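Morning - zinc ion inputs below, output right after.
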Amino acid sequence: MTKLKLLWRRRKNFIVAFMAATGSFLLGVTWPINFLRANQPLQPIQAQVLAVSQPQEQQPMSTINKFSKAIANRVEFSQQSLAQLQAIRFQSAVPGQFQGTTIRHGKLNSQRKAIALTFDDGPWPKTTTQILDILKENNIKATFFWVGKYLKNSPEIGQQVVAAGHAIGNHTWNHEYLQYNEYGAAREIDGTSSLIEELTGVQTSMFRPPGGILNNGLATYAQKKNYAVVMWSADSFDWRTLTESLIDNVMRQANSGGIVLMHDGGGNRARTVKALPDIIARLRNEGYIFVTVPELLHMQEQDLQQQETAQQ
Ligand SMILES: [Zn+2]
């Protein structure tokens, strides 16, 4: 091979590798966004990138190998991100039949004893993280209803909650007990959901009205927008009672399919943090498994389907 030819081949190899690396990098950056926005099919693009990134046999140059490795890493990274994004979206989605309805309680068949712990008014410095730690120690996934303005103040805490696999619902932007027209309700609810998605990738289909008020325009708007309006069946009254009576409140009202209301933010939640390990231990002792609200509704859907099959 002449010197000139060799030089040309090296340059050609470099150009191919460079183009592949650039293309792959751009895809790596844009895939997650594309996935969120348009849910585009991914296989063909992945195949293309992989095909381009395969080193050709007669090119044992270290530069090429280095590029190939970088490309392979990037592809792996993108696939990981996609899997994570898919999981994140799923963890806060309720089945279609519950969208636009109001839920106070899951309806399960008698063999299954499940309960959903929910925490409102976060993300909040310190107490949300303390509650995350307790949930992690006990291997429990819960549901958090966020206030938009608090999420704006503590985005990293919000991201920790999502990364830990918990489900997220919308609890308005300002958490006020007012009457809302459609425009006002849209600002409270859409603004919060947009921030949740922007910061965490979560597209939530759950809404909980502040104070449980169902007739001030917020719940009506949420239902119109196909949110499941998630209320509760067991109120801990953790914002006004001592730790002991808080535990009693939950235990007295607990039953299978139940949704327990507690708070991780919006004020001093030291009592909730103190009570939570006991609540978990006692419920577990009574045979409950802990699920998120979307999981509870998926269980209910499954039970209904089984019933229907049995009747046919
Ligand atoms: Zn609240």
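Note: Residues 14-57 have pLDDT under 50 and may be disordered.

O.
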